[in-house]
Structure formats: structure tokens, C-alpha cells
Amino acid sequence: MNMPVDMSTTLGNAWFPTPIFTASGCASSGKELSQFFPLKDVGAIVTKSVMSKPRHGRPTPRMAETPSGMLNSIGLQGPGIDSFLANDVPWLLEQKARVVVSIAGETIEEYATLARKLRSVSGISAVEVNISCPNVENRGLVFACDPDASRRVIDGVRKTIGGELPIIAKLSPDVTNLPEIARGVVDAGADALALINTVLGMVINVDTMKPHLGGKTGGLSGPAIKPVAVRAIYQVHAALPEVPILGMGGVSSGRDAFELILAGASAVSVGTASFGNPSALVKIQEELREILSAKGFATLKQAVGYAHREENA
Ligand code: SIN
């Protein structure tokens, strides 16, 4: 018989009963997934990054299949913060789901505006500040590619939102020195880090001889990027062992989630795998519980960063 495992985890002062979350952008606000399992049964629902105004996103086609993954070029389509707060958050709280609200902006001021709107909302567990969306017209607006811009966004959100709500800064792997950017956003007030956003990629249709995606470039997700995620989480956990990491990138089994946890993740988001199997989160959660038990871990927390132990001894 498997030994029971305490699966609970924390990101800043937010507590979650299990470490398996949705990934922002892959399940909107969770309504479709709720046909397959009660949303309260997983760690948290991380909502699609919302902006201050409604947004149509990028031209179609917006998706491309690739070997071991997919490219998306959505361009932050969404209803805008006012509609989201009026409709999606109350519905999620009715489901008794734990809610992490993801926000995205085109300017430092837009992030602060979003933070101001969230300040008075009760019941949400944390805010994910997405500073790494690859699908913007101007690469200069990928704040997470610039240490100073990253810091300024998080500083603005922290000052506006106050001290209580945990801030999770979502970073890009498409940078030279990820630990430097991670340290900067933590110094600016982030309590936790989300690693990794998708990897910038492109597909050219060799029949039409033109870029396949309407927006030309897109974000690569799925199994192809798991080694990039493991590397990023491992590097950042080594540099900042006290900072909790919400890991993501190509997780489709309990073994994949366990790998990210061994690298240093305190929680794991599942995205692309849910498109093929909408119940993937529940399956991964149960597989992870069994693996932790079989490996003799009484708590999830004991396994976080375990792969670092030998070299630190
Ligand atoms: C998108 O809406 O384009 C994806 C968002 C992201 O990857 O951050």
C-alpha cells in the first residue's frame, strides 16, 4: 500500500492543497475543464493573462503543430479586466477553486492599473504578472527580456497592490542570464517565479513558402520544451533557493511533474497536455502522488530541489 503524501505547497503566503495547477492561457478561466473534473480538486486555476481593455489578439492562423509540441500566436485575446472581474472570478470562486489571476500589459502603467483593480478583489490566491508573452508586435515589449524593465514592472505592481497578495513573476527562457532577471524581480517585490513561458519559434509552410502563423512567430510549448524548463528551474533554484517556483513546460505525466519538482519547482502548471486530454491535470496529480510515495517522500516539500542536494553536500 502506498504511504500517504502531504501534497500541499505554498507560493509566498498562498497555500495550495496540491501542486498541480493549470497553465495560464490553456484553459481560459476553467469553464470548459470543469466538465471533466471539479476545479477545486487541483491546486489552482491560473487564468488566461488579462489586459486592461478587451483585445482581439493576432490574425489567424494562430496555432501550428510541430514535432513534440505546438506553436501559439494568440496575442493575448481576452475580455479585459472589468468583464473578467465581473464574470470569471466570481464563477471560479463559486466553484471553490483557488484562483491565480494572470495579468499582462503593454506599458508599466498598464500593469499598475491592473494591479489597482485587483487590490480590492477578495478571494484570489495570487497574481501572476506575465512579463514574457512572446506574441507582441514589438520584442522590446517583452519586459522579461530586459532586467531593468522587468524590475520596473514588478516594482510598480508591488507598490500598487500592497503587501498582502503574492506576486508571481512569469519569465521567459529566451534570455542570456535568467538568474539575473529572476533576482531583479525578486528584489523588486515578486514572491515567486513562474518558469517558463513558451520559447519563441516559427514555422514556414513549404507549400505556400510563407510563414504559417498570421503573426509570423509564436510560442513553442509541449514536450519539446521540457528540457529547457528543467534547465531554467534548476539554474534559478540554484541561484535563489528560497524563492518558490511555479514550474511549467511540456509536463504531461506525473514523472514530468516530478522532474520539475526535483529541479526546484514548488508547484507545476500543466498546459498543452490538457488539449489532448482535458483530464490530464487530475491524472498527473495522482501519478505524482504515487511517485512521491514510492520514493519515500512524506511531503511534497521534501522533494523540491532534491536534484541539487548531492552537489551541495
Ligand atoms: C498569447 O496570448 O499570445 C500567449 C500568452 C503568453 O504566452 O504569455
From TrEMBL:
Annotated localization: Cytoplasm
GO biological process annotation, one example: 'de novo' pyrimidine nucleobase biosynthetic process
Domain Dihydroorotate dehydrogenase catalytic: residue ranges: 8-292
A Gene Ontology cellular-component term: cytoplasm
Family indicated by similarity: Belongs to the dihydroorotate dehydrogenase family. Type 1 subfamily.
GO molecular function, one term: dihydroorotate dehydrogenase activity
Taxonomy of the source species: unclassified sequences, metagenomes, ecological metagenomes
Protein's UniProt name: Unannotated protein
InterPro entries with a match to the protein in the record: Aldolase_TIM (IPR013785), DHO_dehydrogenase (IPR050074), DHOD_1B (IPR033888), Dihydroorotate_DH_1 (IPR024920), Dihydroorotate_DH_1_2 (IPR012135), Dihydroorotate_DH_cat (IPR005720), Dihydroorotate_DH_CS (IPR001295), Dihydroorotate_DH_I (IPR049622)
UniProt xrefs under NCBIfam families: PRK07259.1, pyrD_sub1_fam
